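Co-fold these.
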Amino acid sequence: MIRFSAVAKRYPGGLEALRGVTAQVAEGEMVAVTGRSGAGKSTLLKLAAGIERATSGSVVVHGQNVGALGETALAVLRRRIGFVFQDHKLLFDRNAFENVALPLRVAGFARDEAGRRVRAALDKVGLLAREKANPVALSGGEQQRLCIARAIVNRPSILIADEPTGNLDADYAAAIVDLFASFNQVGVTVMMSTHDEASLGRLGCRRIALDAGRVAGEAQPA
Amino acid sequence: MSVWLRLHGHALGDALRRMAAQPLGAAFSVLVLAVAIALPVIAAVALRSAGALTSGVETDPHVNVYLTLDATDADVKRIESALRSNPQTASVRFISREDALAELKSSTHLAEVLASLDRNPLPHAFTVRVRADDVAKLTAAREAWAKLPAVDQVVADFEWSQRLRGWIRFGDRVMAVIAVVLGAAVTFIVGHLIRLQVVSRREEIEVSQLVGATASDVRRPFLYHGLLQGAAAGAVALVLGWAATAWLGAELIALTPAYATELKVVFLSRERIWLVLGLCAFLGLAGAWWAVGRELRQFSPSGRNP
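Predicted complex below.
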């Protein structure tokens, strides 16, 4: 479902984030991307989500070569992928409900249908009671869950999360990991980066280890 | 409802909400634009009024040939034949002395004076419409006709008519220049205002793009905003123009009794009003398109221009 073939990514300024990465994530699989800070985890996830474009090599998602897609087709592809950002990217001039509704608004959903889906997503992450709250009023863990609600509201077939347990205490991190596991159990392909060993142990999924922009190894679940 | 219609509905609602959220700012923006648009509107009204004033005035080059008071019907036929045979002649209209008197009575306040005369003082006349604007050829024709027997006087008023037409043409061009310059100003002002909005909503745009908004999705509410701003400014400009010309018109009407011709301010026709509104909306749209396109190029999520 997601295939990276000899992917390299060089940012303007010369930073080489990825160097010839070849990897694959099967449909319905859950994969953890591991590695130290600067290893290229976030870049790999952004390439899979169509947020970045590879400098060379190819990234194929849902059978589409991301590099060959035009901007509009790429935007449409992004609607089919849920992405949980490391820095959440929440809008603080809108409440929780409006933040989660944003992808549906972009896709042109009817108000009633959008309302049902947003409430279902908020319920899934345990924030239904806080739908009117401004993200500023939410804790770090709640903000993370709000970001997850926004990522799943479109019912994506692929869910990508960049360090979703970073900066969270152990209990919150465990709850988030369980949440991703529950999505994967209903057939959603999950790809997440983390360097949190506790989370990795709890996930029990295949790992792709990156080091200095290269695949350093892969490990199957024990 | 189709997704396309729903997206446009969302965008229109978004633009209206943003204008309503900052009523004072929106009103000032519209007023600034309206003042700029009102100038060509007032100029157009002035030209239209001048056009109405001169519509009854003969501005095509022509020559009036007046016969002597004792000219006979045979003289009339002979002179008409001579006039028609000249290559500079486009058409000839005969005005009998009786017709001339009747026309004079109906078009001036001299009816009582004319009625008191014991005989018609006006001669037979021909109005000759000439083909060329060439003053030398027309002067030669005038001199030839003046020498015809039973011709008393030849008056060629093509010079002043040409000058009048020239002034009207000049007025049209001045108005066109003002309209183009101020139209460009409107486009840039709207563009600048929209650009500020895009910058202030950068975060929202970025997140929208990350969750799947296309360049069109991002651009749409701003385009509606520009369009609404332009149309609102056009409407206010029309009201300003109407108020200004109504005020000036009142002064002009006060001057009317001093002249034989009626002076009045003629506001824009209904078609012109719609044209002004449509043009202003288009300029707002164009300004918004330019500004959003320029800003979006700077923050495309995948590093390509939208």
